[in-house]
Amino acid sequence: MEPFIRNDHYNFIKMQAKILVNGHSSASDPGVLNALKASTQEKVLSLFESIGDEERELLASVETIKDKEEAELYLARVKKYVIPFRTVSESTIKKLFPKVKKLKQPDFEATNVHEITYLGWNDIGSERKYIIADFDGTFRGLRGSFKPNHKKGICSLCNTHSEIGLFFAETKASKDGNYTSRGNYICQDSNECNQKLTSQEKVHDFFEHLLLLK
Ligand SMILES: [Zn+2]
User: Fold this and answer.
1) 162 and 119 belong to one structural domain
2) For residue 170, what pLDDT is reported?
């Protein structure tokens, strides 16, 4: 089997497995549990439009999870098939941000390419944040000012309650839509954000609005 699962899909599967474990520890009615098992399996399978029997079998076994240990074993099996983020070279990064003189490179060693949907890093000295996403083989980059919020809030990318900061992209922002020129709150730690993110579309949307691609 080749890798076929995106990072955001893996995170979604992880979330569903957790909901199922919680269900087992709180629901005693077999009917309720059976319904939860079926809906968990359906939600996981619905992420994928066309997959082979082997892939389907791997994913479908999510319904057999009863406790935390089983969830961990299942997720370890599934994780082997996560598609890594495409390699970005230092020269590609320079090309994405041609006007930046002192460009800070990401910490590649601290970033697991199997755990990211976008590559994001901070330049604390100049209070800037960099984000790179892969649009079907084309890398696009966003750079903007970033000020930590010092209190938790909802991130525009992963939609979870996290340590966030205000990201103000250095681009003409659209006046309509969800993302405004006033800036957007996103996670301070992009690697953590990536581990919670369940929708690649949200990331692409974010770029498309800020880069006026739409
Ligand atoms: Zn986030």
Assistant:
1) yes
2) 81
Q: Is residue 2 part of a domain?
A: no
CA of 191 to the centre of ligand 1 (A): 9
Pair 115, 195: CB distance under 8 Å: yes
* pLDDT given at position 182: 61
Render pLDDT for 91-112 as a digit per residue (tens, 0 to 9). Answer: 999 999 988 888 999 999 999 9
Q: What is the pLDDT of residue 173?
A: 47
111 and 206 belong to one structural domain? yes
Measured in angstroms, how far is the CA atom of residue 155 from the centroid of ligand 1? 5
Nearest-angstrom CA–CA distance, 182 and 169:
9
Going from the Cα of 199 to the center of ligand 1, the distance in angstroms, rounded, reads 11
Q: Collect all residues with Cβ–Cβ distance below 8 Å to 16 and sequence separation of at least 6.
A: 40, 43, 44, 62
Q: Which domain covers residue 186, as residue numbers?
A: 90-210
Taking the centre of ligand 1 as the mean of its atom positions, its distance from the CA of residue 41, in whole angstroms, is 26
Is the domain of 46 the same as that of 143?
A: no
